[in-house]
Protein: NUDIX hydrolase
Organism: Pedobacter heparinus
Amino acid sequence: MKEVLPKFNSTFSIDCVLFGFDEGELKILLIERNEEPFKDWWALPGNLVEEDESLDQSATRILHELTGLSDIYMEQYYTFGDVNRHPQGRVVSIAYYALLRLGGDKIVKPISNYAKQAYWRNVKDLPRLAFDHQQIFEKGMEKIKRRIKHQPIAFELLPEKFTLTQLQNVYEVILNKKLDKRNFRKKMLSFGVLRDLNEKQYGVSFRAATLYKFDKRKYAKLFGKEISF
Amino acid sequence: MKEVLPKFNSTFSIDCVLFGFDEGELKILLIERNEEPFKDWWALPGNLVEEDESLDQSATRILHELTGLSDIYMEQYYTFGDVNRHPQGRVVSIAYYALLRLGGDKIVKPISNYAKQAYWRNVKDLPRLAFDHQQIFEKGMEKIKRRIKHQPIAFELLPEKFTLTQLQNVYEVILNKKLDKRNFRKKMLSFGVLRDLNEKQYGVSFRAATLYKFDKRKYAKLFGKEISF
DNA sequence: ATATAGCGTGTATTTTTTACACTAAGTAAT
DNA sequence: ATTACTTAGTGTAAAAAATACACGCTATAT
């Protein structure tokens, strides 16, 4: 019964666009490859799916191996399957994007056998990428642009406590346009999913701003109602 | 060089939620399987991806084999890869939805070797489905619900010439709620993507309605502007 | 004390969305 | 030709949401 399916020499891989937000910039993690094909090229982090793991498990594992982190927000968004996208054979790649809090302290140190090094690169200034990774990145970028308008994903890019200005920056950099400060704050607060922590930033030069937290429980109660962040 | 990748005994398949709109109802095409596993169960149409075809090509081919039709609107939307989703081995399935004009004359007669028969079933009254096809269907349904709000996909379900009432019906049945007739017409016409054909329905009992056509060229000019149908 | 840089706030205008009901036109039956 | 029936087609007022816009406040640094 287990032997009925044809055995194609085919393979799945996961590729991941790992977004991070740091110093007002949206960045993704790129790997400098240390193996053929595309040795010395920059590429999205990714790897093959093992036979005994689901796609989500595989994506989680691959990111963990790369960053040492667990509990990263991720979402599958498209599958790339052109016949010749991989020079060594038929590899269909399932693409995920992931969103990560790049806290100043929590520096991600990716280590992997096939990678020389890994760097965070501003999405506005990317090198040429290996395979069809340019396309995979662009589609991922489109996806988060759409999704940030309806889902509370911006918070995944920020530390737990954040200021409204920081939040606005995330929106501005992902949507690639300036937003009006007063209108943004009015609207964002009107959803009632931010909790005012009665706490201020600490250690900043100049006036400290109020810190907020995303309140998942209140958000859950809204479910069903379409929100337009 | 071609021998570097590990050879997993793994396979890709395409599964397709083929939506059609007929007599005010949203339907999908289901196959009654004539092969193990899940012999005699109802399932979404699907098949294995060949080694020399891209995913999109494969989806196009599979639908063609099933319906005899080409130029069907289709869109990849998610990939299902749980380890045990297929009892005969590791099969990762890339899901597409397709939208089809079910004209009264153009009756689709699906024929396939693994299928006993195929039927159009109202999405509100589906039998139990084989594999994880219930899940695949539900995710597809969600996707078109979202997409119909921003993309002009409703027209793919209608004949080339249609009335505003028919168009409204498509929205109502996909969004699963009643819409106000006057508001719907006002808004839909305001986009300027419908061409009034100065033509009436023919052969209907009771008053004939004006026929319209979706004007792709005008729509293309709007591109970049987010439309909210 | 003073300079600085980001914080925090309100109102008026425009646009969009919503709610709502009747007459017109064509068909079918008698 | 009258009548009954069914769907087509239309406008306005009210409410809600989105937009445009500028300055005083406050904590820090010197």
